[in-house]
């Protein structure tokens, strides 16, 4: 089949997110200027540069108790920092639960009984037991085309790696926690198999 996106696919559900998949999930923790904490998953997320390391996160939609965007976005604008916690297969239920529309003053850490720790280079909480966490500093925000579509660019200032995810050779082994990824519809997946391919030399 073929369709123009402006006209719609005619299918029961838009397949776009299923086509562009799997996508890594940024489980973002923030602290507002007044000290309120927030934890929420974002699946429009990826790394975009090595040196310095940089990431991109997009937020779609909004909340009735926010003038623009969601709690995470508001906190990031207020403080200029946030933490991306990486989720594994065992985190799936907590991650999904944290996507609910909690009031702006309700901490998902407290509501879900998740252990928090302080970041080292920024004033922000992180998930203490996350396989990895990226301490990020905002560099740019961009209003995207379409209502409620917002993009955040950030520099990664520091990284936490859980010790049990490191091999004796110093490799970060994703199979030890099975990264949780987002597909389309209500579908998720975890990575539990790897293969290697060397870049060819001409």
UniProtKB/TrEMBL annotation:
It comes from Celeribacter persicus. It comes from the Bacteria. It holds the Pfam family Flavin_Reduct. This is Flavin reductase (DIM6/NTAB) family NADH-FMN oxidoreductase RutF. SMART domains: Flavin_Reduct. PANTHER family: BLR2425 PROTEIN, FLAVIN REDUCTASE LIKE DOMAIN-CONTAINING PROTEIN. GO terms for molecular function: FMN binding; oxidoreductase activity, acting on the CH-NH group of donors, NAD or NADP as acceptor. Residues 20-174 form the Flavin reductase like domain.
